[in-house]
Amino acid sequence: MEKTLVLVKPDGVAKGLTGEIIARFERRGLTVAALKMLKLSRAKAETHYAEHKERPFFGELVDFITSGPIVAMVVSGENAVKVVRTMMGPTNPVDAAPGTVRGDFALSIGQNIIHGSDSPASAAREIEIYFAPDEILL
Ligand code: IDP
Ligand code: MG
């Protein structure tokens, strides 16, 4: 089964949306294969978002993702990467349709509630940042 990394970002946790987000994936038929709450270190945040290192918003992004607790999960299922991305909605919530997580719960690109890996290769790289192999139980 394909696996993807999902983060409920600090704004999503603070708004009490963790259960709602997990429920959406479970109702769709995806499986939560690993789950934890944590506060991300700057070093891990910089590793996770390394592709954006040169972008003007990088500092703000690292500040935000390390600003409070997040919930990390491995979600698995057929085409999990693409299905999760579709259910999240586009990066800028202004463009996100109602029915998507960002379209229902976010307004700003900097605080857009949720992360999901953008490819199976990204998923493999990102899952290793958050989970040891023996923490992935399904
Ligand atoms: P994604 O989360 O939809 O995969 P990416 O392009 O990978 O989007 O960007 C990572 C995160 O960086 C986004 O979720 C968003 O929070 C933040 N971000 C992206 N572009 C901007 C921007 O132009 N201004 C501020 N934050 C941004
Ligand atoms: Mg991305």
Strand line-up across the major sheet: 2-3-1-4
The ordered H/E elements are EHHEHHEHHEH
Q: How many discrete domains?
A: 1
Sheet bearing the most strands, described? Answer: 4 strands, antiparallel
Helix content: 40-55%
Structural class: alpha+beta
Total strands: the figure is 4
Could you name the CATH homologous superfamily? Nucleoside diphosphate kinase-like domain
Q: What is the CATH topology?
A: Alpha-Beta Plaits
The portion of residues forming beta strands comes to: 15-25%
CATH class: Alpha Beta
Helix tally? 7
Mean pLDDT: 98
What small molecules does the structure contain? inosine-5'-diphosphate, magnesium ion
Low-confidence stretches: none
The CATH architecture comes to 2-Layer Sandwich
Radius of gyration: 14 Å
Gist?
It contains seven helices and four strands, in the order βααβααβααβα. The protein is of the alpha+beta class. The protein has a single domain, classed as Nucleoside diphosphate kinase-like domain (Alpha-Beta Plaits), CATH 3.30.70.
What does this structure look like?
- The chain is of the alpha+beta class and 138 residues long.
- The chain has one domain: Alpha-Beta Plaits (2-Layer Sandwich).
- It is 41% helix and 19% strand.
- It contains 7 helices and 4 strands, in the order E-H-H-E-H-H-E-H-H-E-H.
- Strands 2-3-1-4 form a 4-stranded antiparallel beta sheet.
- The model has no long low-confidence stretch (mean pLDDT 98).
- Bound molecules: inosine-5'-diphosphate and magnesium ion.
- Inosine-5'-diphosphate (IDP) is lined by residues 52, 57, 61, 91, 109-110, 112, 115, 118.
